[in-house]
Write a structure and sequence with these properties.
Elements (H helix, E strand, L loop, with lengths): L11 E7 L4 E6 L4 E6 L6 E5 L5 E7 L2 E6 L4 E6 L5 E6 L9
Antiparallel strand pairs: 1-2, 2-3, 3-4, 5-6, 6-7, 7-8
Pfam families: Ldl_recept_b
Keywords: EGF-like domain
InterPro entries: 6-blade_b-propeller_TolB-like, Cueball_EGF_LRP_Nidogen, LDLR_classB_rpt
């Protein structure tokens, strides 16, 4: 077993792997942010901070990152190229999973 990220992380609720891009994505519900890094932990960067208010689950498909948010009661899509946010489904009480 190998630790990839150990600093600057408090409550990682979920993670997603993009095999094609060789990237790891995770949501941190305590720090209200979504981050990415290479699969070896290098090139770590914050994609979004403060907009996700309690991100719970995350999924990646191509250029899109999807997550559920327990405070916003929302399913959100983020375009990682244009950085546009789209609220796909609102007023969903405690959305749990996203596939």
């Amino acid at each position: 077993m190998e630790t990839i990220i150990k600093d600057g992380i408090r409550m990682p609720n979920d993670l997603a792997i993009d095999q094609a891009a060789q990237k790891l994505y995770w949501v941190d519900a305590r720090l209200d942010k979504i981050e990415e890094c290479d699969l070896d932990g290098k090139k770590r960067r914050i994609l979004l901070q403060d907009h996700p208010q309690h991100p719970f689950q995350v999924a990646v498909h191509g250029k899109f990152l999807f997550w559920t948010d327990w405070v916003l009661n929302d399913v959100v899509r983020f375009d990682m190229i244009t950085e546009e946010l789209h609220h796909m489904e609102q007023n969903v009480a405690k959305p749990m999973s996203i596939i």
